[in-house]
Specification:
Oligomer: single chain
Strand content: under 5%
Order of helices and strands: HHHHH
Number of strands: 0
Number of domains: 1
Length: 94
């Protein structure tokens, strides 16, 4: 799925932005539902929680995409072993 999102052109910054926007949208949907709908605060709370649950998903996808952007191509093209060897060289001997 991350590969498909990357091919479409969605970056980790876009996914992080969507996470922050969903937090704002959660507050806005709660406030709007509370003031516009006659159903009361219970329905407003449900709307706010429903939209607020999108944020962790976008942040998790953003993190996965960031890892894909940083490590994905190197591992696909065989640079993983070279990177691992460089990391071992720079680690302190303990």
């Amino acid at each position: 799925m991350i590969g498909i999102l990357r091919k479409v052109g969605i970056s980790s910054k876009v996914l992080y932005s969507m996470g922050f926007c969903s937090i704002g949208l959660s507050v806005a949907s709660w406030f709007t539902s509370k003031n516009v709908e006659p159903a009361g605060i219970d329905r407003a709370d449900r709307w706010g929680i429903f939209v607020g649950q999108w944020a962790p998903t976008f942040f998790a996808l953003g993190t996965a995409m960031r890892l894909e952007e940083e490590w994905g191509e190197e591992e696909r093209y065989g640079d993983f072993e070279a990177r691992r060897a460089r990391a071992r060289e720079t680690m302190p001997v303990g």
